[in-house]
Design goal:
Blueprint: E1 3-7, H1 14-23, E2 28-32, H2 46-59, E3 65-67, H3 79-96, E4 103-106, H4 116-130, E5 138-142, H5 155-164, E6 171-176, H6 177-183, H7 191-201, E7 207-212, E8 214-215, E9 226-227, H8 236-244, E10 252-255, H9 261-274
Parallel strand pairs: 1-2, 1-10, 2-3, 3-4, 4-5, 5-6, 6-7, 7-10
Antiparallel strand pairs: 8-9
Length: 277
């Protein structure tokens, strides 16, 4: 069975997201833990969480993927920005335990002219400070497009972070199809080779989720501009090969395409029809 959903608004709470997911044919979803461009997080309503958990259990809506705000930059040159990243992630991971056993995704960050090595050091230090042996949440590093001074545009950079994290069993990777294409990994023409490289550098056992997106950019553009599944530079047939690949078909997929709910419903239906059990 294809495990697929999309990014949903968390403004009305967990129960509302679960009901919205069911309406569009999804059996998982992604959401922001707080304002994606700011720092505020809504107080968690235990009754809302309880209602969500009941629906999720009954309807098999798992695993959900929380996404950190875009303003979280664990490797900024600005100490105040790094401090915000630390506080926001600590709070997010605490809140995640209301819905145990799920995943939390974040962009590794931008080193802002400090160099990749310094950026990797800061990211690993934050993770070592915050990860707990008792947490049930798996924290995912996202593959990035390599725009500007982003860390994570190369598989080797993510491996460097993972190698420095003491509780590495709490860490995984979310592969974004738009980002890896923009970073220069040809998943359309050489998917097997890209996955072999990922396995050699990081290990496919660390791959826990996929952001299923198309891109407005040519291969290797290093820009990160998402497109709908049927309108981008990656052929639709290549994305269908991704969801059906033996090494990937068991993973949960999360759409972040520029869509409204009807558009997401159509893309979910399209992928379900193309999926081979």
């Amino acid at each position: 069975m294809l495990r697929i959903g999309c990014h949903l608004s968390s403004s009305k709470g967990y129960e509302a997201m679960a009901k919205e997911a069911l309406k569009i044919g999804a059996n998982t979803f992604q959401f922001f833990t707080r304002n994606p461009r700011g720092g505020n997080a809504k107080a968690i309503d235990p009754n809302d969480v309880s209602n969500f958990l009941s629906i999720a259990n009954d309807q098999d809506i798992v695993p959900i993927l929380a996404h950190a705000p875009y303003t979280l930059n664990a490797c900024s040159a600005d100490e105040a920005v790094r401090d915000f990243a630390r506080r926001a992630m600590a709070d997010d991971l605490s809140r995640m335990e209301y819905t145990p056993g799920n995943m939390y995704n974040f962009h590794p960050g931008s080193h802002v002219k400090q160099g990749v090595e310094i950026g990797i050091q800061y990211i690993a230090e934050q993770l070592n400070d915050l990860l707990s042996p008792t947490q049930t949440t798996t924290v995912l590093l996202e593959t990035m497009a390599g725009k500007g001074s982003e860390v994570g545009g190369a598989f080797e950079e993510l491996r460097e972070i993972i190698d420095r994290v003491q509780l590495s069993e709490k860490i995984g990777v979310c592969l974004d199809t738009c980002h890896v294409w923009d970073a220069g990994y040809d998943i359309a023409g050489h998917l097997d080779e890209v996955l072999t490289q990922f396995d050699r550098v990081i290990g496919l056992s660390k791959l826990k989720a996929i952001h299923l997106n198309n891109t407005k950019n040519p291969l290797g553009a290093r820009k990160d501009r998402h497109a709908t599944l049927t309108t981008g530079q990656i052929p639709l047939e290549a994305l269908i090969r991704v969801i059906n690949h033996p090494a990937l078909k068991h993973l949960p997929y999360y759409l972040e395409t520029p869509n409204d709910l009807d558009g997401y419903a159509a893309e979910i239906s399209l992928m379900r029809d193309a999926y081979r059990e």
